């Protein structure tokens, strides 16, 4: 029986007790697990106990995503080189540096029985399906295993948590730029002197820009304790950092995130929620677009859980045992990344005669040591040593300056509990429970809320350390024991709001509220993509559902930079001493509506003003910062990002605003008055383009690519399976919409390309491999079902698992 026929049949699988990875089947002898697939292949899992419920989920994940999960597991545990060879040694090293599996196993073993049952059940279900595949590979083995030349392996509980840590915790809540910031400050002081160097540093790494757009209005923001307000302190006792150590820091950032410097880390997801008085249907409407990359198969995994205290439908990141987005009929929830400051780097002094010791509170302590062995296909194994101080794992040794740098995470030791916390979100029934659970989330996340009573809400979550008042939070901390964390910020001070007076909540990873400071790695400023959302909402009165859906399309094609600079081009246009060519170019930029579209289908963006503005911005950044900032920091400032705020673009805007900027401008980076600077830049742009007419200055269209690789270039599919949509869209990897009507909740989502990543050994794809791609391209949704009668009416297949 081939895959498609089997999926359309009602199958009863009777299994005997077995041991996989040293773990017996965790479903009791009289437990029946039922998996009902809807018309788009979404599995609805039914079971009466926790182990059975997550057994069904693990089984469904292995059915749909076996090769993807095999590679995610290997990517997270650092075992890719074992099957794909030496080119993945670096990826494996990065993975193993992220966490200690022994510590994770200790956390798992300390879980309460019911929580442990979640992981046990998930692992057993996944492994049960894998055993079926191994028993009948000619029918069930995904073709990618034959193409890459290895077989799938069983998972354990540490694998599950490891995937969670690598894809969510370290990817979205582990950024730190304190080493880079310190090196930048040091170089600026060398070039410009103490005061001027610090002034320029403050213009490039500001602590708080009061003009930054916020999610919570000032009149509803949570007051902060004084020690958490703006500071401008010095680098007490730090030893200078060597260029080689800075290079290692940059290389690590590039390896993890393909770029280095503030605002280059993954900053994911948008959201807008409307209260009833903002919509024509007089109902609250929730829309969430999580952004975490486009792949084949996709990262979001549709799932519904019914039984053992759960009754929810939604989607999970990477098929992990949690629901990041969804509804349980009482509330609905979603998430964007918060990027609050949950990590610090500590500089420790090494012993002058032995680098095996470091100084702490007047004593010389030994580093903790962990040895890992990476197996490498067709090569000898590679051994790696990881060292830790009392603060955390050592990132770099700076032997030139007799120091080492260790990272401390506020969520260290809470990785497993944070996964369980996120899963419990799908059982929350009201705002009070929502906030109570949020206290337990250590990662920096924005959680969002809507309920059947038409309430809407938002909470900025995370365990944020209280740092010594004698330090600048942008820089590393001296690790001699004098400047330790003073605890964690109390939950009462975290930004949160219910039913805001303005009638909506909008967020695109922007600042939560005005008095919340930047972290060392995310610099909030005036240039922020959330303004695209806010401007659209503010131009409408009560929005129709058509207008709400159009907001996603509108934001997807909007250049986020142009509107902030148009006033300066208008000023240029009105100046009497500006040439005709410059005024013509300025007018084209002013006339451009900011849309990045190819409506005539010629492969080029339609507006010449787009190309003109981008060329101007690139050159303006170069002319403003090149004379004052050395490499490698100049590269960070010259980045033109059309999709989210880049530090250089924000710093340039502040410089052009001068005294009107929210960030004090004590260092003149322009060198001339604003109009002269604008004119000089445009003159250079036109010189470079003198052989072309303005209307021919068009940019080729950027396509919306669905990759077959995940973190570190690790493949999750065959190279030939990459997909493309014609024009890039700055939007969610998936989209989720929720409305509570009097007769129940309506949950809609789209998870491209499709629910399943399965391609059989004969090359036949699952019918749900890419059946959501056209929906996504057309900004459409599919329905998700919660009530039993809805699931029954829309099911395409049923599988019953009775496990002993």
TrEMBL record:
Record flagged with keyword Ligase: no
Keyword Iron-sulfur attributed: no
SUPFAM superfamilies documented for this protein: N-terminal nucleophile aminohydrolases (Ntn hydrolases)
InterPro entries: Ntn_hydrolases_N, Pen/GL7ACA/AHL_acylase, Penicillin_amidase_A-knob, Penicillin_amidase_dom1, Penicillin_amidase_N_B-knob, S45
Signal peptide: 1-24
UniProt entry keywords in alphabetical sequence: Hydrolase, Signal, Zymogen
Family note: Belongs to the peptidase S45 family.
PANTHER family in UniProt: ACYL-HOMOSERINE LACTONE ACYLASE PVDQ (PTHR34218:SF3), PEPTIDASE S45 PENICILLIN AMIDASE (PTHR34218)
Protein name: Penicillin acylase family protein
Source organism of the structure: Paenalcaligenes hermetiae
Lineage of producing organism: Bacteria, Pseudomonadati, Pseudomonadota, Betaproteobacteria, Burkholderiales
């Amino acid at each position: 029986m081939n895959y498609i026929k089997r999926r359309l049949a009602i199958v009863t699988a009777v299994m005997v007790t077995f041991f996989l990875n040293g773990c017996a089947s965790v479903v009791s002898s009289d437990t029946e697990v039922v998996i009902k697939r809807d018309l788009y292949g979404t599995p609805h899992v039914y079971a009466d106990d926790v182990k059975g419920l997550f057994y069904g989920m693990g089984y469904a994940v292995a059915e749909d995503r076996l090769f993807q999960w095999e590679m995610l597991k290997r990517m997270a545990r650092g075992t890719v080189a074992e099957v794909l060879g030496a080119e993945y040694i670096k990826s494996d090293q990065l993975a193993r540096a992220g966490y200690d599996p022994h510590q994770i196993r200790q956390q798992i073993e300390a879980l309460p029985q019911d929580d442990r049952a979640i992981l046990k059940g998930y692992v057993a279900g996944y492994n049960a399906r894998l055993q079926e595949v191994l028993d009948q590979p000619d029918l069930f083995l995904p073709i990618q295993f034959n193409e890459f030349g290895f077989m799938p392996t069983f998972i354990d509980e540490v694998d599950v948590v490891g995937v969670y840590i690598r894809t969510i915790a370290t990817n979205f809540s582990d950024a730190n730029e304190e080493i880079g910031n310190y090196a930048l400050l040091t170089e600026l002081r060398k070039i410009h002197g103490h005061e001027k160097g610090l002034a320029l540093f403050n213009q490039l790494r500001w602590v708080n820009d009061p003009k930054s757009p916020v999610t919570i209005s000032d009149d509803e923001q949570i007051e902060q304790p004084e020690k958490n307000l703006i500071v401008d302190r010095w680098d007490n006792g730090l030893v200078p950092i060597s260029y080689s150590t800075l290079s290692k820091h940059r290389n690590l950032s590039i390896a993890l995130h393909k770029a280095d410097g503030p605002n280059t880390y993954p900053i994911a997801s948008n959201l807008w929620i409307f209260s009833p008085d903002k919509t024509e249907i007089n109902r609250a409407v929730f829309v969430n677009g999580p952004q975490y990359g486009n792949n084949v198969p996709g990262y979001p995994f549709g799932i519904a859980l019914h039984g053992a205290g759960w009754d929810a439908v939604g989607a999970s990141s990477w098929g992990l045992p949690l629901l990041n987005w969804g509804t349980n009929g009482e509330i609905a929830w979603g998430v964007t990344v918060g990027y609050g400051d949950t990590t610090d780097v500590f500089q420790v002094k090494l012993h002058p005669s032995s680098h095996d010791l470091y100084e702490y509170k007047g004593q010389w302590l030994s580093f903790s040591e962990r040895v890992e062995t990476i197996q490498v296909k067709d090569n000898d194994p590679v051994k790696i040593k990881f060292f830790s101080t009392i603060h955390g794992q050592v990132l770099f040794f700076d032997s030139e300056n007799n120091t080492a740098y260790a990272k401390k995470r506020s969520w260290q030791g809470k990785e497993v509990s944070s996964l369980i916390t996120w899963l419990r979100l799908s059982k929350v029934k009201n705002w009070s429970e929502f906030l109570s659970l949020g206290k337990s989330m250590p990662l920096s996340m924005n959680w969002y809320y809507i309920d059947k009573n038409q309430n809407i809400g938002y909470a900025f979550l995370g365990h944020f350390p209280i740092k010594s008042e004698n330090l600048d939070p942008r820089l590393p901390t001296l690790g001699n024991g004098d400047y330790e964390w003073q605890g964690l910020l109390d939950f009462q001070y975290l930004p949160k709001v219910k039913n805001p007076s303005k009638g909506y909540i909008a967020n695109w990873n922007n600042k939560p509220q005005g008095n919340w400071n930047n972290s060392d790695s995310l610099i909030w400023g005036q240039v922020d993509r959330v303004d695209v959302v806010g401007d659209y909402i503010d131009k409408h009165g009560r929005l129709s559902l058509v207008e709400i859906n159009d907001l996603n399309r509108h934001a997807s094609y909007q250049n986020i930079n142009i509107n902030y600079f148009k006033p300066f081009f208008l000023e240029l246009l009105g100046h009497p001493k500006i040439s005709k060519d410059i005024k013509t170019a300025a007018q084209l930029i002013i006339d451009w509506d900011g849309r990045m579209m190819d409506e005539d289908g010629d492969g080029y963006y339609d507006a010449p003003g787009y190309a003109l503005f981008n060329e101007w911005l690139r050159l303006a950044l170069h002319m403003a910062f090149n004379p004052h900032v050395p490499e490698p920091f100049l590269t960070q400032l010259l980045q033109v990002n059309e999709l989210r705020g880049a530090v250089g673009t924000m710093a340039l805007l502040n410089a052009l605003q001068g005294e009107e900027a929210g960030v004090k401008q004590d260092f003149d980076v322009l060198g001339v008055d604003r109009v002269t600077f604008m004119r000089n830049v445009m003159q250079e742009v036109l010189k470079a383009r003198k052989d072309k007419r303005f209307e021919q200055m068009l940019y080729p269209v950027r396509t919306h690519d669905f990759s077959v690789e995940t973190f570190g270039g690790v493949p999750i599919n065959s190279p030939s399976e990459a997909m493309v949509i014609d024009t890039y869209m700055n939007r969610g990897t998936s989209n989720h919409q929720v409305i509570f009507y009097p007769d129940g909740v309506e949950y809609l989502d789209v998870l491209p390309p499709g629910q399943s990543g399965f391609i059989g050994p004969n090359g036949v794809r699952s019918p749900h491999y890419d059946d959501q791609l056209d929906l996504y391209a057309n900004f459409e949704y599919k329905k998700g079902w919660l009530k039993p009668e809805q699931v029954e009416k829309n099911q395409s297949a049923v599988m019953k698992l009775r496990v002993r």
